[in-house]
Specification:
By secondary structure, this protein is of the alpha+beta class. The chain is about 20% helix and about 10% strand.
Length: about 120
């Protein structure tokens, strides 16, 4: 989710076998990068496509474990690391704990989503 205060929706959306990500916390605004992308989503889609959305010649490498694929957690961690705006992204995929705001897997979140491959190169 990229909308302002999106972290506030996580408790209502979380559940078993479900991954929920937000670009910002429940009391934060989300920052736009362009008219087409929020800052967090811009970097998330860059991780998935292998290039910046507004520069197809750019090269983005988000495959942190070098297995030739991009997992949900790799794309999230890449977006989080490159988001330069004052917003705190959150990740939740175990349906039990509070959402995690750091790199995943950690604290029980991200283990399941690390196995979900979105792009194989």
């Amino acid at each position: 989710m990229n909308q302002c205060f999106s972290g506030g929706f996580i408790p209502e959306l979380r559940g078993p076998s479900r991954t929920v990500m937000s670009s910002c916390g429940e009391l934060e605004v989300s920052w736009g990068r362009s008219e087409d992308y929020g800052e967090f989503n811009y970097w998330y889609f860059s991780a998935l496509t292998g290039h910046k959305p507004d520069d197809e010649k750019s090269k983005i490498v988000a495959d942190a474990n070098n297995d030739g694929a991009i997992s949900v957690t790799e794309a999230y961690n890449f977006a989080r690391a490159n988001d330069s705006r004052p917003e705190t992204s959150y990740f939740e995929d175990n349906g039990l704990l509070l959402p995690h705001s750091g790199d995943v897997p950690s604290g029980g979140d991200g283990d399941r989503s690390a196995k979900i491959l979105l792009v194989k190169r």
